[in-house]
Design brief:
CBS-domain; 7 helices; 3-stranded mixed β-sheet; alpha+beta
């Protein structure tokens, strides 16, 4: 299973914010879109960084008064790990684990086309396990049905 299957199920929409956006605008966008992260982007198609609720909380914890003058670029995580629509979910899960992140922007030919979360990957894994369990149950039922009756 690939990232594109995840995005086909959940949607390819990704929310971005400009690097110069004030931290208050970041907070408002996170709340408005009911998401935990925004991709920081100059154009809506590039990835300058990523900003999460945790990044915002850390900035506020350092100095809540000074945080009012910060921008997305000041608080964002740089050097963002990414994936492509063709990546298998097992590679994505490993990449998230190694990088210690819960979200990966999806790039197609270098352009931002989606975002996947660890929740999305786990959901896909659970669906695969359920499919396997159904197949095993079906095979077992078929095998029992073909046993000679004593």
């Amino acid at each position: 299973m690939t990232v594109s299957r995840i995005l086909d199920q959940k949607g390819w929409k990704v929310f971005t914010i400009h690097p110069t956006a004030a931290l208050q605008a970041v907070i408002a966008a996170l709340a408005e879109h009911h998401v935990g992260v925004l991709v920081v982007s100059e154009t809506g198609r590039d990835v300058a960084g990523i900003i999460s609720e945790r990044d915002v909380i850390r900035a506020l914890a350092r100095d809540a008064t000074a945080a009012t003058s910060l921008t997305a670029a000041d608080v964002m995580t740089h050097g963002v790990a990414t994936c492509s629509p063709d990546d298998p979910e097992s590679d994505v899960m490993e990449r998230m684990t190694v990088a210690g992140v819960r979200h990966l922007p999806v790039l197609t030919a270098g352009r931002l086309t989606g975002i996947v979360s660890i929740r999305d990957v786990v959901k896909l894994r659970l669906e695969k396990i359920e499919e396997m369990m159904r197949a095993i149950r079906h095979e077992a039922e078929q095998a029992v049905a073909h046993l000679p009756h004593a």
